[in-house]
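Q: How do we represent a protein-ligand complex in a form that can be generated token by token?
A: Start from the inputs.
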Amino acid sequence: MFESLKPGTPDPILAVLGLYRDDQRPHKLDLGIGVFKDHSGNTPIPKAVKAAERRLLEQQTSKAYVGMAGDLAYNEAIKRVVFGDLDLGDRCASLQTAGGSGAIRLMGEMLNASAPGARVWLPGPTWPNHAPTLATAGLSLETYPYFDFGSQSLLKEQMFAALAKAGKGEIVLLHGCCHNPTGADLELEDWHRLTDMALAQGFLPFIDLAYQGFGLGLEADAAGLRHMASHLPEMLISASCSKNFGLYRDRIGAAILIGANAASTSAMRDLLISRTRLAVSMPPAHGAEVVREILSDVALEQSWREEVEAMRLQIQGARQALADQLRSLSNSDRFDFIAQQRGMFSTLGISAEQVACLRDEHAIYLVGNGRMNLAGLRADQAEPLARGLLAVMNAED
Ligand SMILES: Cc1ncc(COP(=O)(O)O)c(C=O)c1O
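Then emit the structure tokens for the protein with pyridoxal-5'-phosphate bound:
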């Protein structure tokens, strides 16, 4: 049966993880996989999550299936996190998914069911899972210029010029905030311009919101997509609770659908539900219940908001500490971009040899072309990291 089966390609991050685990050097530093770590190197469970879980443990009386649409109160509550006060009424629906990834895959399938093989424009670079997930759903892919590693700057005009060619029936994927892997985000005025382009040209924005709260804050990080949502007839959002609720392994996110009218939105939602039925029959409960519990209690929500803000400030502090070390050790402002970029990641744009040299000679683990997870950096590690980076980058520049 399986003689001709080709093994799937493992994610290169997993290989890095294995090497890190086997590394015996006590000062080894893992900036590879994208999880937040506290000062003791642990990926914490937010207090609000623990409190919600305690309540669920006490209150839950059954493990019978939840309904096909999952947790309805969660589906409503997550819209409030994403949209704030913006109420789109019955033009907007939300459905719980297995993380942000589940939302991307399901909405990819929905797009392909509606317009087979439709073109999706992805930023270059983007999260490595975007292209294979959307291609597997049947869509065709196009890249628009987004970022230049050499100058560590956005390629805005090239981006707008490329997207001027995106027309009706095409999809443009944008990172809502904290762009992965570059940490370089669009300004509000860029969102305004893209909104005008979408209105004039008819393309459909698909916003991937995986790090809300980690950039400028929970509200500011959603400002761009909120502007779009309040002006455009149609739009899709994949939201993730992995990072900002610390619920990585519980796999909870949402597919948020904005349609031209209530009937269109309802058709989209029904299609997602029927695809969920085919894929997993019934949705899981735990992650959605935890988030719903937090968002339905004023005190718990406040505590969660404060914890998100604390994570954001820690990441910002790590960024600043590394930029300061690099500035003083290199006597240049060449690395100041690290303090200015947002969210968990910055990417140095270095060669595979330089990444290997950082690992082999300095016990510093990065992925790809030098993507660093700044949310994994403790203050006391900024100096050795800066020294390692400079040794490798100056040696091979
Ligand atoms: C840009 C982006 N989108 C989506 C995701 C999906 O996150 P999850 O499926 O864990 O919610 C990630 C996770 O790393 C990401 O970086």
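The chain has a mean pLDDT of 96. Residues 34, 99-101, 127, 175, 180, 208, 210, 240, 242, 248, 253 surround pyridoxal-5'-phosphate (CB under 6 Å).
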